[in-house]
Amino acid sequence: MADCAHVLTVEYRDRGLFIVAVPGRSRVQIFPKLFSRQVRRSASITSQSSVFLRASVPAQKILEGSRSRMLEDRSDMNSPVFYASLASGIFLSIVGCSGSGGLADVGSARSGQANNPSAYLYSDSQAIDRAVPIIKRLATDSDMEAALLKVNVHEGHGFTLAQGEANTKTDDGVTWGLLGFTSFDGDIYNVLEGGLSRMSAADKAELERDGNAILGSRIDSNSKPTDVRAFLVAVDRGKHIGRDGAPIRRRNPADALATWALRVNADGKKTPWTNVQAFFGWLGERPYMIKAQWQAAEGRYNASVNQARRALGGRTPGSISKKLFVDIYTFSGGLDDAGWSQLLAMPWQGEAGRMREAVEIVLRRLGPGNPHYRNCKTRWYSILQEFGNA
Hints:
Blueprint: E1 4-11, E2 16-21, E3 29-30, E4 44-46, E5 81-86, E6 91-97, H1 124-138, H2 142-155, E7 162-163, H3 165-168, E8 175-176, E9 181-182, H4 187-196, H5 201-215, H6 228-238, H7 256-261, E10 262-264, E11 270-272, H8 274-283, H9 287-311, H10 319-332, H11 337-344, H12 350-366, H13 373-384
Antiparallel strand pairs: 1-4, 1-6, 2-3, 2-5, 7-8, 8-9, 10-11
């Protein structure tokens, strides 16, 4: 979004259709005469910005946003004109990108909630549900969609939910986002750095304004008023190459993000400060951070498909095998060298048999003493059952 010229928000107080054209101008144009009376309701331009829709030019439809409905554009298809149906009180942020002629390459989020930080405190189920339409519109094929929808359910963070040791059972620092990126193995630093590097001037202004409003709030007694600068310092101090590269950070106080974000409970386990958790909920809905998470997810998916292909002796993996290896790789890092030697030495018993063998090898490596062993066994065997003979 570096080339985006402006970010404006239109507030619709009544139910009905709206139509917007954004050809790099400094204001949003409403076209009330093209459709019914419902369109002719007034809309006010506000300074609040956050709800984004993804579209392209020429635009034939808007891809689903958090509260919008996809509709066909019946107007001049050479003009970037978009419309949808919104419920009362919802805000829509219009992003005009210079040189693009209209909306370009943005994600989905909400607006007008910086003064209500608790609105970003999502439960597991809410975070999972909010991620589904984003995954569906960004996935490049049905296998990728199925695999990442499964990971979304199994990890339970969506794009927004941040958790600590008390929720994730192991002390991995901060765990957040679609693949359960953790500060312990370094993935979260890579994603945050990737997202922050994509920010436009408008994004930076929004982060400064809304981010500080959320971080400076006292939602409850477990809030620790802080600010965006402290967050950025923590990211900078902790950034490094994660497990997809080297070196990997050792477990030590250098996990600056965990030190900043987590509080110690009475039982000794760690959870995010409430306002920090709300901030991660808000941050996970920014288009630039959705793109950074998705880039990591694409990389994980492609690497997992290559692992599945290797496990099958060079054969093309089917959808179930892809889904399984994405989940295994996301949660456990996949097979180690000893596991690969063992797997590839086994006689070929078909794709389902080879996938079962891979699961059993990884489970033996984890061992029953691992706090995630039972969960992994349940979720991986549930995928194996899709072969019909597990």
